[in-house]
Amino acid sequence: MQTTKRLPISTTNIALVSTFVAGAIATALTQNWSFAVLLLTVGLCGLGAALYARRPNSRDITRLNAIEYRDERDRELAKQGFATVGAAALILTVFEVVLALVFFNALVALISCAQMFALCIIWGTANSNAVKRR
User: Fold this and answer.
1) Contact 43, 102 (CB under 8 A)
2) What angle do CA 61, 132, 83 make, to 5 degrees?
3) pLDDT tens across 73-99, in order?
């Protein structure tokens, strides 16, 4: 009989928490202590939220907001939420590109354009995958 050990939090949350902690370390190395503390605090709050959502009696909304899905129903609900977030991210990125170009900040404009391009590629890929599954 093979048992699979479940991680204490989802892989997505491990990546998010790790990124915040790594950012806190990198920021601390540049002696920017206030942002290091901020990043570490956000990472630890995310860890706490994920662990809280893993409780057996956690509510659906708690699990969805913490990206700690328990079953396929949670995953389907999350897809609907992330579809809305993706559309909003694309719209906000277009505003960001326009503002960067209006105020002629070349680096911000370049980063914004790259972000918008990446979101469009991800969106198209996700749509293709969704159509193939149906």
Assistant:
1) no
2) 30
3) 888 888 888 888 888 888 888 888 888
pTM value?
Answer: 0.71
Count CB neighbours of 44 within 10 A: 14
Considering just the CA atoms, what is the radius of gyration of the chain in Å? 19
The residues near 118 (Cβ < 8 Å, ≥ 6 apart) are: none
CA dihedral 127, 128, 130, 134 (to 10 degrees): 140
What kind and span of H or E run contains 103? Answer: none
* Alpha-carbon torsion, ordered 84, 87, 93, 96, to 10 deg: -70
Token pair 């204490």 is found at: 8
Cα 115 vs. chain centroid, distance in angstroms? 14
Q: Which two tokens stand for residue 99?
A: 């503002």
